[in-house]
Design a protein that fits this description.
Blueprint lengths: L11 E3 L6 E3 L3 H6 L3 H16 L3 H16 L4 H7 L13
Antiparallel strand pairs: 1-2
Helix pairs in contact: 2-3
The chain binds zinc ion (ZN).
């Protein structure tokens, strides 16, 4: 254990969605293998399913996508993974 010079508990892994290398800083992110922004996108998609495509959801979505692109994430993978979130117009919630 003492050989390791990396910070404790900060394993680097690849995001399951955008494929960026990311550090596990939030436990729930680590569980699903998402980076922070992708995890937030998943939450937004749930909100959208509940509430429809509200303006704040669209704004938050675009901000998170921009963050992922700046971090050299795979934009197409993100868009297809969260295809419901990136589809407009959104069908009526069931
Ligand atoms: Zn990601």
């Amino acid at each position: 254990m003492a050989h390791n010079r990396f910070k404790h508990g900060s394993g680097v892994y690849q995001c399951a969605v955008c494929q960026r290398r990311t550090r596990a800083t939030v436990e729930s992110c680590d569980d699903v293998g998402y980076c922070g922004p992708c995890y937030d996108l998943a939450g937004l998609q749930n909100s959208m399913w509940d509430d429809g495509q509200e303006d704040w959801i669209v704004k938050a979505r675009d901000g998170l996508l921009a963050k992922i692109i700046r971090g050299k994430g795979n934009e197409q993978a993100v868009r297809s993974h969260f295809s419901a979130l990136f589809t407009t117009p959104i069908p009526e919630a069931q």
